[in-house]
Amino acid sequence: MKRNITEAAKVIRSKNAGPYELTFDIMFxxxxxxxxxxxxxxxxxxxxAELYKIPEADIMTIVWFAPANAVxxxxxxxxxxxxxxxxxxxxxxxxxxxFNIEF
Amino acid sequence: MTKREFKVxxxxxxxxxxxxxxxxxxxxxxxxxxxxxxxxxxDPGPFYLGAGKAFTDREFVKRDxxxxxxxxxQHKIPVVVGTAGGSGxxxxxxxxxxxxxxIAKENNLTFSMAVIPCDVSKENVKIALDExxxxxxxxxxxxxxxxIDDTTYVVAQIGPEPIIEALxxxxxxxxTGRCYDPACFAALPIMKGYDPxxxxxxxxxxxxxxxxxxxxxxxxxxxxxxxxxSFILEALSPDRVFTCESAAAHTLYEKTxxxxxxxxGGEINLENCSFKDLGNGRVEVKGSKFVPTEKFYLKLEGAxxxxxxxxxxxxxxxxxxxxNIDKVLQQVKERINVxxxxxxxxDNLFFHVYGKNGVMGSLEPNPNxxxxxxxxxxxxLCPTQDQxxxxxxxxxxxxxxxxxxxxVSTAGNLAFxxxxxxxxxxxxxxxxxxxxxxTKNEILFKHRIEKYEQGTRK
Lengths: 103, 458
Known about the structure:
The complex is a heterodimer. Chain A is of the alpha+beta class.
């Protein structure tokens, strides 16, 4: 049975990383959840691109960071910080679609 | 033999965010070897660098600095302040320098201060561009001479080197322009022979002070203790602790790749980094390495004015209008083009529709509006303020009375919370320079020294 990511993650957040990048962090509750997500590649470029309706080429990196039991995804910001059409200067409210991930 | 150690007190995440006096005094009791604070960031957007304004409040910047400088002078602890005024251009540096001069005068202080300007002349940037020494960062357009000309202030993020030069001259206080956040914490320990990888990684965590503790706070103090082969983090309020998790989690924060943290002249490599809980809210970090790059790159930052903004905030509670909101907004734009006899007039108009996709814009995955009311921020962005005022006004009045298809409520389409309804915002900036420059190892930034005796500048 599929379960929702909020069962496995204790932190799900987004933030600007400089004016041109947006970065997403998912920190897992346990080492086991971290390993499960990593081994099964639950977070991957294809699913992330679909979730945010962006081309896969706009996903810069997916890094699994064991010291924090976390995975980090960094993407191209749709609009550079503060440029015309900007909606979120600090990029801190772009995380909600991640709540729909199942594993 | 006692183990050599070096203590750094970080009072707050950003100078001007404030900190509890009790936490600061607890830090001073531990007799730190350095008090350092990072005062800047590009996170608040391009306006502050472009316009030469601080994003923190003067009264609170003065409050924070008063504690730091008075304690530093009294106990003979060096004080280093990085990225003066938030963005670190000469205009920000002078703003902060004047605050320190006031503090010196009001408290009859005797000390010497190094001031390090970090602006780079446009001429030097153009020469570097011609010589192929400018590299754009990811997703940043190639730099052009026009961008350089249009940029108001060009700053470089300096590393620890110019701060070390100032400290070698015996300065009690060092105030820098734009500075790589960890450098103001790492300069003095690196000068004293501590490992640069550990010193910079510790600086990377301390620059956010207690944000890296749990519960995190941007306005509370943290202490970092550097040893020969590790550093130890502790919070200075009994309400917070550092845990392996909080320290490791912070290493992720705002970064592209937590294993490789690039900075001036090289990167902090965390591939072999480990976090150990020492108990009592303290965490020990080991294994961080500084790996120099072959060429010495500095990051340049700059912003250019792209026009003037006027906004109007309104709401709608009409279910028919809400159901057709995209169509209504498109038709309002078309009507404005017709009214002004200019088919491109509405290109300068942006609608931020809260309740629909105001927060996520193009990244919004949910196509359907579920809200029973919407907030619409009308934004006009034009070459002059008068044009922006006109466009915002016309957009507001057109939308207020627009007879969209199926309309039942004919008295007005928008609810305005304010009179006047239109707000003149002023100049708008965009980042125009965010590039690396190969410095050819030249020393570009030199400090000047100011001496204060009993509060008087000599």
